[in-house]
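Quick review question:
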């Protein structure tokens, strides 16, 4: 059974949210209300932005907000300081993990990745510094990754005695091919973003960290001003939620495209083209989605509900 999700309260300003080790900014910063471009910054520079359970909970809180907030068009994800993310916080280890059956466990990195993946607003990962482990896998659900040529990146799991996490065994080979993915995961090595082992994982690279963030903001602004959020999201889902054969894909994308031909964003996009102006796209999934959406079966990744400690104590007295 898939339960209805909790309702999401959208804040007037994201900059006022009380968050742990994650900073959310408007672009330009200080704007009184949410802007089309939102910047999410991993904010533990003294720990090289190593990721914690508390930070994962922040992502599970803010990304559903971005998803339903029509003011937000693009998210830029970056890190404070010299590193993008040094992976999971190994100093804290796994001591905070709840004791449970293997099949009931939900990898915190996977929960983070799915929060980004399920958001209809694209994320641009501005990886201004080095990243390993979870720092790499969190970038895989992003639509675009921009790296720094002076930094090193890698999937170091086998060098820590660990296997792939964050649903990366799904994302990585689909992004760069099985051959490259196998090399990176087998060696566990770190390489510059221009290494051939990454294939086209990093769509753009720059020599200076500041250039990485500046380019991400420039690109995010360009997307927010010129791209239909709904058309962009549905196109990405057509790739990720592919039914598996050319014939089945033809049926799925035909139904979606036929609906989009008569949609308000298509009409606005064509009108803006001929009038030589920026479009004002305002179609939403809630009001304008194709009848076939979603064309895939939703998977409930939640855990089974558990009785509260108070309920258990009450039962024990009976």
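Suggested answer, residue by residue:
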């Amino acid at each position: 059974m898939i339960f209805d999700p909790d309702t999401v309260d959208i804040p007037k300003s994201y900059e006022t949210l009380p968050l742990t080790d994650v900073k959310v900014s408007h672009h330009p910063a200080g704007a009184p209300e949410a802007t089309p471009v939102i910047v999410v910054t991993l904010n533990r520079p003294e720990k090289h932005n190593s990721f914690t359970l508390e930070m994962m909970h922040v992502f599970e809180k803010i990304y559903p907000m971005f998803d339903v907030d029509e003011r937000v068009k693009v998210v830029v994800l970056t890190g404070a300081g010299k590193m993008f993310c040094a992976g999971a916080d190994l100093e804290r280890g796994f001591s905070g993990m709840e004791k449970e059956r293997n099949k009931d466990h939900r990898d915190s990195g996977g929960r983070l990745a799915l929060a980004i993946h399920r958001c209809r607003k694209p994320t641009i990962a501005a990886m201004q510094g080095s990243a390993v482990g979870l720092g790499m896998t969190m970038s895989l659900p992003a639509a675009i990754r921009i790296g720094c040529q002076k930094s090193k990146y890698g999937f170091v799991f086998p060098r820590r005695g660990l296997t792939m996490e964050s649903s990366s065994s799904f994302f990585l080979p689909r992004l760069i091919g099985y051959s490259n993915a196998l090399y990176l995961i087998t060696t566990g090595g770190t390489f510059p973003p221009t290494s051939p082992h990454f294939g086209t994982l990093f769509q753009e690279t720059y020599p200076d960290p500041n250039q990485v963030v500046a380019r991400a903001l420039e690109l995010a602004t360009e997307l927010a001003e010129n791209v239909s959020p709904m058309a962009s999201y549905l196109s990405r889902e057509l790739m990720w939620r592919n039914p598996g054969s050319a014939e089945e894909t033809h049926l799925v994308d035909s139904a979606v495209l036929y609906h989009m031909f008569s949609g308000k964003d298509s009409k606005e996009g064509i009108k803006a083209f001929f009038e030589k102006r920026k479009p004002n796209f305002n179609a939403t999934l809630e009001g304008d989605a194709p009848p076939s959406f979603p064309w895939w079966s939703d998977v409930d990744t939640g855990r089974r509900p558990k009785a509260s400690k108070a309920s258990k104590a009450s039962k024990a007295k009976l």
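Why it works: Residues 311-315 have pLDDT under 50 and may be disordered. The radius of gyration is 21 Å.
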